[in-house]
Specification:
Keywords: Amino-acid transport, Membrane, Transmembrane, Transmembrane helix, Transport
Order of helices and strands: HHHH
InterPro entries: AA_transpt_TM
GO cellular component, one term: membrane
Number of helices: 4
Helix content: over 70%
Organism: Arachis hypogaea
Structural class: mainly alpha
Protein name: Amino acid transporter transmembrane domain-containing protein
Number of strands: 0
Length: 133
Amino acid sequence: MKMLKTSFYEDSCVKTLVGFIALCVPFFGGLLGFFGGLAFTSTSYIIPGVLWLAAPKPKHYSKVHSYVSVVLLFTLNSFNAHSSWKSFIRIFQSYHFFLSQVCITIGLFIAITAPIGGVRTIILSIKTYKFFS
C-alpha cells in the first residue's frame, strides 16, 4: 500500500482551515455532548453489559468453572472468609447479572438525556451567538 506523503505547507494549510472552522462553531461543547451521548454510552455501558448477558457461561464442572472456583477459593482463604465458596460463586455470578442490567439501564438513560442536553446547549448558544465575538 502506498503511503500518502504531504508536505509541511499542505499540513499547515489543512490545520489552519480546520482551526478556522472550529472558531466558527461556537457550540462545540454541545456537539460533544450530543455525539458523546450517542457514541460513548453505547460503547462504554450498553455493549459490554449486553455481551456479558449474551455470552455462554461455562458449565458447572468444566475446566473454566474449576479454574474460577480455585482462584475464588484461594482469594476467600486469603481473606479468612467464613462463608462457603460455592455460595460465594453463586452470589458473584448473580451480581454480574445484576450489575450488567444496571449498566445497561444507566447507559440507556445517558444515551437518551445527553443528546437532549447537547441539543438544548446548541439552541441556547445559537440565540446569543455573534460571529467572531
